[in-house]
Write a structure and sequence with these properties.
By secondary structure, the protein is mainly β. It is built from 2 helices and 13 strands, in the order αββαβββββββββββ.
Length: 278
Amino acid sequence: MKKVYKIVLIIFLSLISNSLFGFTSLPQDSSQTSEPLYDSKVQLTFGLFLSSINSTAQLNTNTGNFGTIINLETAFKLPDARNLFRLNGLYRFNNMHSVEGYYYALNRSGSSVTLDSLIFGDLTININSSVDAFFNATLFGTKYRYSVHNDESVEAGFSAGLSFLDISVGLAVQLLNQEKSDEYNDLLFLPVIGFFNRINITDNLIFRSNVDMFALDIERYDGVLFDFGLSLEYLFLQRFALGISYNAYTLDVQFDAKESGRLIYSHKGLMFFGKVFL
């Protein structure tokens, strides 16, 4: 947990310095009525995300006993890498105000023979039991973006919004010729705040970065979220660009809703994308 906060602080300072150093003296033309490429009203990004994944789940029993902390990739052979389609869209109201939305879905399943005794909810699994497991996650959300500065060379600003994680994790085991199962389903509402910037290295080469995070303790959830991205895109047609980005996403949340437990989930990797400016 402390490591996450240190990383957030480092990135925060880096983004603030990138945003302010050397650009504070540049004038902001708020009366601009033209629509150059950097200020396009609609920007659509789509591509293939090559991700490595790590997920750990704990589901406590209805009687209040703690469940086993289970690494799903190690215990049940869930794939620790997956190629995903990701979609991102941005709409500008004007030079300073915009909204952004994003979506991706991840479904995994695996089977194995357990090497340890496990407790998952009200399901008790003995050593050498045959277990089928699944972990499905759909991440989507939207955020409002305010550009402190935005011109043809540099953009920097702040964002705030909601990130939704629709998750379903479950186990099924054969016991005495009868299958028993348990699972946890929830839609997590995760408020996020963040920082973003853009630097046009050349007329056709653009660097972008962003960080979004939350740390909160509310009635149902107690945890942290950290989402960091870097991208480099090259404009080779008037309204189309190709690029590569790196994204790291980490969620560590304890929940106490219909059921109680803990979920630790992370993915990181490269995305190869196309981008359309409309």
